[in-house]
Specification:
198 residues, alpha+beta, Aminopeptidase, 7-stranded mixed sheet, 6 helices, 7 strands, 31% strand, globular, binds coenzyme A
Length: 198
């Protein structure tokens, strides 16, 4: 019997070392091919993919996280903070572009990467994390719901794949308990508008 357990790790990537960029592109291509390529429907050219990932590292509002299986990048997700002008939503962040290469699934990478993004969001001052997802990505939806994400909306024309509209699901997770208290207080306040006016 084979009892070999691969080693997993998650980290924030701020630069590409050794074969990182090539491994990240390989993993992306595999995920796109399996139908979970965070928006890519067809596999782009290698040049385009490399430029995409290099570009991600240059955007100040983005943090790139990768999951490794035995040292090889096999999963990824991004933490995206609002642009500086968006003071009204400065307390929020988005979890985007999450995927795990098919060959690396079932080793806890998706969960570990998601938790790393949540922790980074907290550290960067975000009290709330938003994400949206195609309703066809059932395992990922189950993961997010198990991690405490609340579904608050559905979009009937979220994506169009092979001419077929796909519904999208919108989720949030409150990271700062103080924020939840504030929302509860504000909501109950709004439910009594006449009392406040009188
Ligand atoms: C869904 C996906 C992210 C799971 O990746 P993974 O690394 O295999 O997941 P993990 O090993 O971290 O498992 C996390 C949990 O999900 C469960 N899970 C993972 N894949 C599952 C599947 N296909 N069916 C049922 N449950 C599944 C695991 O049992 C685990 O549950 P536990 O915490 O109770 O043990 C991966 O299959 C994927 O990348 N899918 C396509 C792209 C996608 O959906 N991206 C996300 C949104 S864009």
């Amino acid at each position: 019997m084979n009892t070999f357990t691969p080693m997993t790790s998650v980290e924030r990537l701020t630069g590409f070392q050794r074969s990182d960029l090539s491994d990240l592109c390989d993993a992306t291509e595999a995920a796109i091919g399996a139908g979970g390529g965070f928006g890519w429907v067809t596999v782009p050219s290698r040049d385009m993919l490399e430029n995409y990932w290099k570009g991600v590292l240059m955007v100040p509002e983005r943090q790139l996280f990768v999951g490794r299986l035995d040292g090889v990048i096999a999963a990824s997700a991004q933490l995206v903070r609002p642009a500086r002008n968006n003071e009204a939503q400065a307390f929020t962040a988005q979890l985007q572009t999450s995927f795990v290469a098919p060959w690396a699934r079932g080793h806890g990478l998706a969960k570990a990467v998601t938790l790393a993004v949540e922790e980074a969001a907290r550290l960067s001052g975000a009290g709330l994390l938003n994400l949206d997802i195609r309703e066809t990505l059932t395992p990922a939806i189950a993961l997010y719901e198990a991690l405490g994400y609340t579904r608050w909306a559905e979009h009937p024309f979220y994506a169009l794949i092979d001419g077929r509209p796909i519904r999208g699901l919108y989720y949030y997770k409150v990271l700062d308990a103080g924020l939840e208290t504030l929302v509860t207080a504000t909501t109950s306040d709004h439910s009594r508008p006449m009392e406040r006016l009188s």
